[in-house]
Each structure stands twice: as C-alpha cells, then as structure tokens.
Specification:
Blueprint: H1 2-10, E1 25-26, E2 43-46, H2 54-63, E3 67-70, H3 74-79, E4 88-91, H4 98-107, H5 114-131, H6 133-145, E5 150-153, H7 160-171, H8 176-184, H9 186-189, H10 202-208, H11 213-227, H12 230-237, H13 242-252
Parallel strand pairs: 2-5, 3-4, 3-5
Antiparallel strand pairs: 1-2
Length: 256
C-alpha cells in the first residue's frame, strides 16, 4: 500500500483508485490564467465518502486531504453519514430535486421518457445557478480561507459537484471546452449503485445517472444570459471579486 501511495504522490493521476468511491478525482493539471496549470493534489471532486475503506482513508491521509465539502441534502447525508479522521466536514446542503419532480410527473399519470429526464436535469442545473448560489459562494469562501487539500462532493459527484468544479475551473481561467471535458469524465468513472431507481425505465436511468453536455450547458447559458457571463456571476452573485480571483490564482495555480 505504501508503495502505491508514494507512486500516486510522485506521479499525479487524475482518477484515484479508491474502493469506496468510483468518481474521486483531482482537478490538477488543467491550464488556467497565464498558461499556469492548476496545482495537483489541492482540489478533489468525488461521489460520497461514506463507503471509504481503511485503505481509502489512508490514501486520503497520504494526500493531505483536510476538508470535505458536502453538497448532499439532509436525508442523503443522514442515510450515508461519515466521519473521516483529520478531515473537517463542511455541509453546504443542496437538496436534490430531480427525483421529486419525476415522482410528481408520474403521479400526474405521465410515463417518464429520456427526453423528460433531460429536461428535468436541465431545470435542476438552472436551479444551481439561481437558487443555490449561496452554497457555491460559501465554497469559494472556504477555498479562499485556506489552500489545504480539499474534496467536495455530493452523492454521485456528478451534478452539484460537477457545477462546483466548473465554477472553480472557470474562475481559475480554464477554458470552457476543457471544463466540459472534466465534467464528462464522470461517464467513464462513476459506477451506479445496484438497484438505484429500479422502478424507472432504463432509458430514464441512463439519463439520471450520467452526465450530458446539455446539462452543464443549461447552467452556463443561464449564467451568460441572466447575469452577463461567468465573470459577472462570480463577482456580483458569488462575491468572488477581482482581488479574490487573484488570491485564488495564487493559491491554486502553479507559477511557470
């Protein structure tokens, strides 16, 4: 195990081999402002951390992870609670809405289709931009308070976490096409838990448990059309002004 940890530390890899979390990965290496790469081993994104094995926890300790930002809603957190030695958990609850809306449609006699599911996901992502901005603002305050290695996550690490990762990378000057590439990596990594949502048609589940460009695009289009772009959204809505963005770059971009 020690040899594996040393190898990971000396030769950074984006996806980390955890047994209890399939979508745990590093945001390092992407090129940001001024051609400076995002520092490795500072910012991690993941699915939930309640199933980590002792070996997984040892790997997080080796990586120096000191903070976990948890975007899960109250019921999700209660159902899969965790406490990791040496890791401070910061709950920034964003309640899930897709399942609730899907159930409302079903109660109204509507048989859900994949197209319905895509529309629900897009509506959810627009909600991140408008309704959940305070949670993402709090995330940036944490990142500005300390550059201690941090993991942020929700349940699957794909939607709430995906939008948070996009905001961080965009704030650091990473181009949108690269941000989208990082977002879509979930489809290659995340392993859907068996039996989840088994009452819904498989075509619907394939939408709900994966990510599509249309989802993140819905959020970014809302940022552009409703707020005048990412820069204005960062400053006016999330409170990440020019000085804060400079501080972020100093903390999380590698000087070249």
């Amino acid at each position: 195990m020690q040899q594996q940890l040393s190898t990971l530390s000396s030769s950074p890899t984006r996806s980390l081999p955890l047994t209890g979390a399939s979508n745990f990965r590093d945001l390092g290496g992407y090129t940001g402002h001024g051609g400076q790469p995002v520092k490795w081993r500072r910012l991690f994104r993941s699915d939930h951390l309640a199933a980590l094995t002792p070996q997984d926890q040892a790997l997080l300790a080796e990586l120096g992870v000191a903070r976990a930002v948890d975007f899960r809603g109250q019921a999700e957190s209660a159902a899969h609670a965790y406490a990791l030695p040496g890791v401070a958990r910061h709950p920034l609850a964003i309640e899930p809405t897709v399942v609730q809306r899907a159930l409302e449609l079903q109660r109204a006699g509507r048989q859900l289709t994949a197209q319905d599911a895509v529309a629900l996901m897009q509506e959810t992502y627009r909600g991140f931009v408008h309704d959940n901005a305070p949670r993402f603002a709090a995330l940036f305050r944490l990142l500005l308070a300390s550059d201690a290695p941090t993991v942020f996550h929700c349940t699957a690490g794909k939607d709430r976490t995906g939008f948070a990762a996009a905001l961080i990378l965009l704030a650091l000057g990473v181009p949108r096409d690269v941000v989208m590439h990082d977002y879509l990596l979930t489809n290659a990594l995340y392993q859907r838990p068996p039996g989840m949502g088994s009452n819904a048609p498989e075509e619907v589940l394939r939408v709900l448990w994966r990510v599509q460009e249309e989802f993140l695009d819905a959020a970014l289009h809302s940022v552009d059309s409703d707020f005048g772009g990412v820069q204005a959204y960062l400053v006016e809505v999330l409170g990440v002004d020019a000085a804060a963005q400079k501080e972020l770059a100093g903390r999380y971009l590698q000087a070249v």
